[in-house]
Amino acid sequence: MILPIVAYGDSVLRKRGEDIDKDYPGLQELIDSMFETMYKASGVGLAAPQIGKPIRLFIVDTTGFVEEDEEDDEGLREFKKVFINPEIMDEKGEEWAFNEGCLSIPDVREDVDRPEKIAIRYFDRNFAEQQEEYEGLKARVIQHEYDHIEGILFTDYLSPLRKRVLKTKLNNIAKGKVSVSYKMKFPHQK
After folding, report:
1. CATH of region 5-189
2. Is the pLDDT at 190 greater than 60, yes or no?
3. Fewer CB within 10 Å of terminal CB in the chain, N or C?
4. Structural contact between residues 56 and 19, judged by C-beta atoms closer than 8 angstroms
């Protein structure tokens, strides 16, 4: 089922998500719906707060980063994962900039600096504990989605000047004055 994506300005995007257990009601259906929603919106990641659920769950599928005839040096074409109750244990390496966007903040893209490598512990879709290290674009997508379950948005990393420049655009998103090809829920639609 395709779910509406919560827009910038909704308080759920600012809450630190709660851990869940394997008996969370409708967990597998929720995960399936999150993937369906993310694909419909042409995203590469989606966190539960973005669909109005303040829990520690996010999904990623980086296939969209790679064109069909393009080299896939980072293995992005096969990188599809579910992260439940994740904890980033370490971030290291040079910080590097990449132009990020967010389904909850449509039509806003900005360069964000993040460390190139992470170590993360999480439960997968079957609630098996995993501990892995990622780098490059995989690490970046995970860091972006992880921020969502911490109540952090990519715009929080911008300079005060960039935030002032984007203020009107962000306020318009919160008011529903934005055109997107996917379902959205705006703060005034409670």
Report:
1. 3.90.45.10
2. no
3. C
4. yes
Amino acid at 56: R
pTM here?
0.95
3-state secondary structure the chain: CCCCEECCCCHHHHCCCECCCCCCCCHHHHHHHHHHHHHHCCCCEEEHHHHCCCECEEEEEHHHHCCCCCCCCCCHHHCEEEEEEEEEEEEEEEEEEEEEEECCEEEEEEEEEEEEEEEEEEECCCCCEEEEEEEHHHHHHHHHHHHHHCCCCHHHHCCHHHHHHHHHHHHHHHCCCCCCCCCEECHHHC
Question: From the candidates 18, 68, 95, 145, which is the catalytic residue?
Answer: 145
- Does 47 have pLDDT greater than 60? yes
Residue holding tokens 């659920």? 53
pLDDT in tens, 97-133: 999 999 999 999 999 999 999 999 999 999 999 999 9
- Report how far residue 103's alpha carbon sits from residue 39's, in angstroms, rounded to the nearest whole number: 11
Residue 13 has a CB neighbour count (10 Å cut-off) of 22
Token pair of 91, please?
């971030």
Residue 116 is among the residues annotated as catalytic for this protein:
no
